Amino acid sequence: MLLQFGIDWGQLLRDIIAYGIQGIIAIIIILVAWAIGSVIGRAVNKLIERTGLEKAFDRTDVGKAFRAAGIDLSNLIGMLITAFVVVIGIVVALGYLRIGGEAGVLVAQVAEYLPRLIGGIILLTAGLILVALLTDYIGKLLTGLFPKQFVEIGELLRNLLLIGLIALIVSIALDLMLFTGPLVYPLILGTVIIGAGIFIGHTVVRNIIEDHPEFASAAPYAKFLVYLIFLMVGLGAIFANFPQAAHVIQNVAWGIAIAAAVLLIPVIYTLAKKMAGEAKG
Questions:
Q1: Which of 9, 59, 121, 223 has the CB geometry, 3.0–4.6 Å to 205, for a possible disulfide?
Q2: 245: confidence class by pLDDT, cuts 50, 70, 90
Q3: Model confidence, pTM
Q4: How far apart are CA 31 and CA 92, in angstroms?
Q5: Environment class of 132 (CB within 10 Å of its CB; exposed 0-12, middle 13-18, buried 19+)
Q6: How far out from the chain centre does Cα 201 lie?
Q7: What percent of the chain has pLDDT over 70?
């Protein structure tokens, strides 16, 4: 019955054999890439451990966060290197198969994007490591340069530098992974503003309390107010490209400002009364 359709069994058999051979070769390419990637990944893993880079990274704040999350630096980088080599092998294998039609176009697009994705993750990881080591080194220099009473200023500058460099690395990695859009960069900017505000508020209020203990009772209100200010500014930056949301945030900010002013009235009155009593005494 199949002969009625004019099937060329010889050609069909040759096509099956040809496609089968291509599939086997593609699988071999991926397996070879996996083997090479595993060797390179293990070598990088051992290199990081023996050079002491991992120990130096573990002493930084970012490294401590990695350890707390159960992430081993050398293993992570080794796995990423292995994954990158395997992805390259997959791209080569898919290119060798030469899949046609719309499916081929889709596969080609995926194959073209995979190296960007893994490369962006590697860049992000390596960038975080370098940023952590650099800011830790700069922080030690700044701590040594500032007098003891201004050590917190050095720590503040180190934390601000850490936030800024992390934002830079994240933006570069997102560009590499093609994660772009109207919300990406405002989101990074807003996050930086909020993070910087937290560090600034904490450091400034702590220094004020140390120099002027009489303001200790007002410290929680001041810290809360500083956090709110930077939070509103950060949210405004994040939703800057969305006028309606920005307008809502602006109205909320005005409401918070009025509420904060009302809350500060009894605090200011209490402090003024206390200072007046001390002046009379």
A1: 223
A2: low
A3: 0.67
A4: 12
A5: buried
A6: 23
A7: 74
Q: Are 121 and 174 in contact (CB under 8 A)?
A: no
- The one-letter code for the residue type at 241 is N
- The span from the CA of 91 to the CA of 107, in Å, is 9
**What pLDDT is stored for residue 169 in this prediction?**
86
Helix (H, G, I), strand (E, B) or coil at 182: coil
Q: How many CA atoms lie within 13 A of 57 on its CB side?
A: 23
Neighbours of 159 (CB within 10 A): 20
Cα separation, 101 vs 142, in Å, equals 61
The 3-state secondary structure of 11-78 reads: HHHHHHHHHHHHHHHHHHHHHHHHHHHHHHHHHHHHHHHHHCHHHHHHCCHHHHHHHHCCCCHHHHHH
Token pair, residue 117, equals: 């994705």
Number of helices followed by number of strands (H, E) in the chain:
9, 0
In this predicted structure, what is the pLDDT of residue 246? Answer: 64
* Amino acid identity, position 15: D
The identity of residue 106, as a single letter, is: L
CA pseudo-torsion sign 35, 37, 38, 40: positive
CB 237 within 8 A of CB 193: yes
In the numeric block, which tokens belong to residue 136?
Answer: 């830790």
| 3-class SS of residue 201 | helix
- For residue 121, how many C-alpha atoms fall within 13 Å in the half-sphere facing its CB? 15
Neighbours of 221 (CB within 10 A): 16
